[in-house]
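Pasting as-is:
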Amino acid sequence: MFRKLHLKMTLFCTAVTGGILILMALTGLRVFESLLGKNDTASYEKTVSSVLAYLDGQNILDYDTINRIADNNFYTISVYDRGTVYSRHHSPKEEALMETACETALEKYNFDIQTPPKPGAIITTLNFSLELDDVSYLITLAPLTRKYGTVCIVIAYQCSQLNQQIWLLRFSMLAIIVIACLLLFLFARIFSARILKPVEESRKKQIQFTAAASHELRSPLAVILSSAETLKAADAGEKDSLYEVIASEGRRMSRLIDDMLSLTAADNQVWPMHPVQVPMDTMLLDLYEAYLPIIHEKGIDSTIELPEDSLPCTVCDRLRMEQVLCILLDNAISYTTRGGRITLGIMQENRTLKIWIANTGPSIPDEQKEQIFDRFFRADTSRKDKQHFGLGLSIAREIMHLHKGKIWVEDSPLGGPVFCLRLPCQPQ
């Protein structure tokens, strides 16, 4: 499913972005071609003006000078004087060009070079374009008044240089578009893969979560069904114990469902929060005193480390933060053996409060320090404690995330893990 979605997103992004790029490239190409055409026309007009200005001031025609003014590779120039043609080394192709230009001028524009206007008449210069043998030309016919009469200058400019520039520009733009589309395809493929990666991981986690939740729910449900079946044939003395088993497993299922609903609310960002100012050192001390009977009952030593000066308050949901601390304390008591030690502490670091709960239970390997916050993860898979489902630390992490805080685990110098919390606090 994700492979098909990845391919569709890649093709869609490439098509949309590539289409915009092609549209912009074609628009730019049209503008560049127009500019090239205007520059070429301006250069042609400037050259024609230079040739006519030179001829107008000369009594004797000098084709060497004319060829220096006009590039001989692209210009063909002839002078018509009362039926006589003066030109320099015209090839048959150029002669045919001149003949066609004169015929076109006469047929379309009624401009006859054989009978030029007489002196004193209104003389105009004729400019038009001509297509001959799939080659474009710009043609100029210009009468020049001399002492003995009027002569006509015919100038033909071959636009092959402009066409070469235009086609070179088109091929260059095509190559750029192809390369750009390939790069866009690669970028879209990589970018869409990065976008889909967390979605795919989230889906895998949901599948794992569903499978793990089903497994966890199956165990107490099986005990309840088995006890209910046994209850039918049990005598009066056994019924009380069976009722207690059913009630205990029902409460266990209720806790598991509550935990799963809490995580679902956190995932959907609908977990209600009621932030108030809370003195964290006082709350930590109250919880420590509340857990002292349980700690002493298990034969565990405990200490709490509080700073001499009062600490600033932090804005948080008091019940949620108590839930986090209770989760950590329950885990510490559960994993600490008789004769071990649990240490609670709090201190201020810059604009944050750091809280830690250390115990002398089994250490957590480095490769599991992040995994222990995953849902239904147990560092010790051999433990069969029915009070823990592997969701407590996941809930604690979600609560800390909602408070813009952090939770992590370190190694204690005396052995065992140290769970640390960091919360932003208000300056005093």
